[in-house]
Amino acid sequence: MSQTISLKGRLSLRRTLIDGAFRFFLYLSIFISLGMIFWIVSSLWNEAGWLLSWDLLTKYPSYDIDNAGFQSPLVGSLWVVGIATLVALPTGLLTALYLEEFAGKGNKFSRLIELNIQNLAGVPAVVFGLIGLAFIVRGFVKWGFTVGSAAAVIAMLMLPVIIIVSREAIRAVPPSYREGALALGATPWQAVWRLVLPSAIPGTATGSILAVSRAIGESAPLLLLGALSFVTFNPTGLDSPFTIMPLTIFKYASDSREEFQILASAGSLILMTVLFILNLIAIILRDIATRKRNV
Amino acid sequence: MGEVKVGRKSVVLSPSPHLARRLNAQRVARYTMLLATTMSVIVTVGIVASLFPTAVRTMITIGSQIIGISWAPLFEPPEYGILPLFTGTIFIVAIAMLVAVPVGLAAAIFLSDYATFNLRRVVKPILEILAGIPTVVLGLFGLYVINPLYVEKYWPIGEPLAYSALGAGFVTGILIVPIIASVADDALSAVPRAMREAAYALGATRREVASKVVFNAGLSGVVAALILAFARAFGETTIALMVAGSFPKFTANPGDPMMSLSAFIGFAGIGDAEVGSNAYNTIFLIGAILFLITLIFNIVGNRIIARYREAYE
Amino acid sequence: MSNDLQTAPSHTEFVDNNQGSAAQMNEVKSGPRIIDPVFTLEDVSVSYGKYVAVTDVNLQIPSNDITAFIGPSGCGKSTLIRTLNRTNDLIPGASVAGKVMYHDADLYDSKASAVEIRRRIGMVFQKPNPFPKSIYENVAFGPKVNGRPKKSELDAIVEKSLRGAALWDEVKDRLGASALGLSGGQQQRLCIARSLAVQPEVILMDEPCSALDPIATLRIEELMMELKKEYTIVIVTHNMQQAARVSTYTAYFVTEVNPLGDLRTGKLVEYDETKKIFSTPSDPRTEAYVTGKMG
């Protein structure tokens, strides 16, 4: 007769219990993270969901809840972050290309720049408001509290993030593409421009969209740039006064009257919707990028 | 040593005119990239140059008054005791860490050792959405939900007020959960598979592998995650300002309003501070302090990450 | 398999009559004397930082023929082939000592352009590395970076190159399809076609079949036999049978372990006609290797 061997689990009861509890705790933590989003969105919705209508996008900020809307802050946010992106994206991408493809790994210069970028990414956002206040609003640029000043500050804030995500995207391009192109007599720049950059675009785009959505939600640095005011007209240029979504929400929120709380919540819902759409685009883009790489 | 006999065919390997043009284009591209690269240096120099002259001058004027428990630089007579701002900041950050560390680390362990590939693809974007919630919305949530419905109702000590460090800490905790989760997940996922397999081969359960072997191996990266999250919470302005209020109260009761370092900058900087005014001078002083402290934490955190990457790559 | 072992290599026959003087012959310490070589290597050593990958190489490579580099892993044969078109330049810390002559020109002369060199001396890599573009665009890449050919010229180059790489019939109906959809063997032939499109004189092949199945390998070998009519081919291979099948000359390298440290250095042991290497090698180490006693 052959010997029978049981492969059934024979862990001690204690071990099984602890393992089960640990697993439960892990799932709970994910559930909590998900629940936080739901909790935040649902309390905003309960407060201000009824107020949402397309009118909110066409009306301007006002103390009268029936006539209040978010057009000028929305347009202001678009201006500020739009211009900031136009500045920060090419600058960041070129920096990333330089560091990854031309600077030479491990030499003193690139290590210094790398360290600088890493630490710049960790500087509290509000500090960027201070440099804006000292040098751009006043100081030698003297742009005052304008769209241009705000865009400059937001561009500085976005720059390190864009550099970091672009570098990651460039690093993910297989080195064999570069080798292949160079073996055909392409200059390193041609290899980068025609092959590396196009291959890095989905990854860079994903990271940059996330950076843009963070910039749209950013409030602290622009507190110092006079954006916390009621502006009831859309900006028309770099030298226009402006306000932005997060700070209009902030302004309403600091009023204790209930209708302002509702307005602030409504503004938050609009802002979250915009950001959610941007995030969704980023996630889809990344999915496309990873799928392409796995083919 | 005589000439080696080489091929008789004569070739010229210097660049052709077309190649010379392409190399010129490359040179132009190189300079453009270099210029872009210097921008990030200029920003750093700009930060230092904008903060420190004013900060140092202000510090010299204030002198030893800075060690004090009353912060009221905008009033007459001004008071410059900075301790309340520090206690405010520390309370908020500590509470935030208390909330975020267990949840964030659990999420990281889940992602690195428990989640299937598909589950990971669902959970990661959820954390990203959480990370993408603007601070002003979190502030609103603290102000309208956490403070009135929870802190005011259930906190047993002191008088209930609209603002509290407890609420601000809790909401800041929500902010840093995704930071801890994602940086720690990177660290734990970088632990070589061979280490896991060795532990499984000894009959360890998944929990034992994850919590003992992988967690220990990835510990330095986990520590880095906590440090970076700490630095992020330390510099967070909007939440502190909205939820903890703008009263620099020197207190040990987390249910009280408090003011953090960064919140003071937001608070005093709103009102178009005139150059040379007390408000202007003190926000640059606090800005410099904030910059230095977060810089130290960031350097340490990034260093640790760089080291474990080197070890595993 | 041996039909080309029987073809007597035509390069060595009249050495003495042509140019040979005793003094000159002594300069080339190893290998057959070759008339009008494409490459002449004199005391070549290649290092990565402190680590010397291969040292003291003297050999001459004939035109319109196939020369194989064989030897165990770590013997520096890949490193050496990469110095022949300055692909090693791309690795930080890599340095070349000695002379690498291409016809009468020094490849490492300060006036020589690495880009120009790589255009003339193409390379096919170990793993097929088609660009993430269409089949057509892969082949057109080289001509495009090296000039601005007209569409009609380009079409002609693409067809000619694909025919040259024996791939035309398989892909002519789907030139617009992604190159990543081809089989491994087809991808490698596409990479060969891509090299042909820039009209090189030499094609370096760094273990071109190591990622392919036996049938695909056979097709590449047939292709190489075809290509040697017009091109000079240097191939690095792990596969001794492959070297015996396709090459006219073979260089055998070994790994020497430095007695002081555990640093490994590659050395050229013997360079001769392939049939001699595989029948009557002069060095016992070569004999041990080709008869399978080691390595």
Descriptive terms for the model:
heterotrimer; B: 313 residues; mainly alpha; two-stranded antiparallel sheet; 11 helices; 2 strands; 1% strand; flat; C: 295 residues; alpha/beta; ten-stranded mixed β-sheet; 13 helices; 10 strands; 35% helix; globular; disordered N terminus
Please tell me about this protein's structure.
The complex is a heterotrimer of chains A (295), B (313) and C (295). Chain A has helices at residues 13-48, 55-58, 71-102, 108-122, 125-137, 147-171, 175-183, 188-217, 220-223, 245-253, 258-294. Chain A is mainly alpha-helical and 295 residues long. In chain A, α3 (71-102) crosses α10, α7 packs antiparallel against α8 and α8 runs antiparallel to α11. Chain B is built from eleven helices and two strands. Chain B has helices spanning 17-62, 83-114, 117-132, 135-154, 165-189, 193-201, 206-217, 219-235, 238-244, 261-269, 278-312; strands at 71-72, 79-80. By secondary structure, chain B is an all-alpha fold. The mean pLDDT of chain B is 91. In chain B, α1 (17-62) packs across α11. In chain B, β1 and β2 (79-80) form a beta hairpin. Chain C is α/β, with parallel strands linked by helices and 295 residues long. Chain C is built from 13 helices and ten strands. Chain C is globular, with a radius of gyration of 19 Å. The A-C interface holds A 104-106, 174, 176-187, 190, 194-195, 199, 292, 295 and C 85, 87, 90, 92, 115-116, 118-120, 122-123, 125, 127, 129-132, 141-142, 144-146, 178, 180-181, 191, 194-195, 197-198.
- Kindly state the mean pLDDT of chain C as a whole number? 86
**Poorly predicted sequence stretches spanning 5 or more consecutive residues of chain B:** none
Question: How many strands, what sense, and barrel or not for the largest sheet of chain B?
Answer: 2 strands, antiparallel
Share of helix of chain C, binned: 25-40%
- Report how far the terminal alpha carbons of chain C are from each other: 23 Å
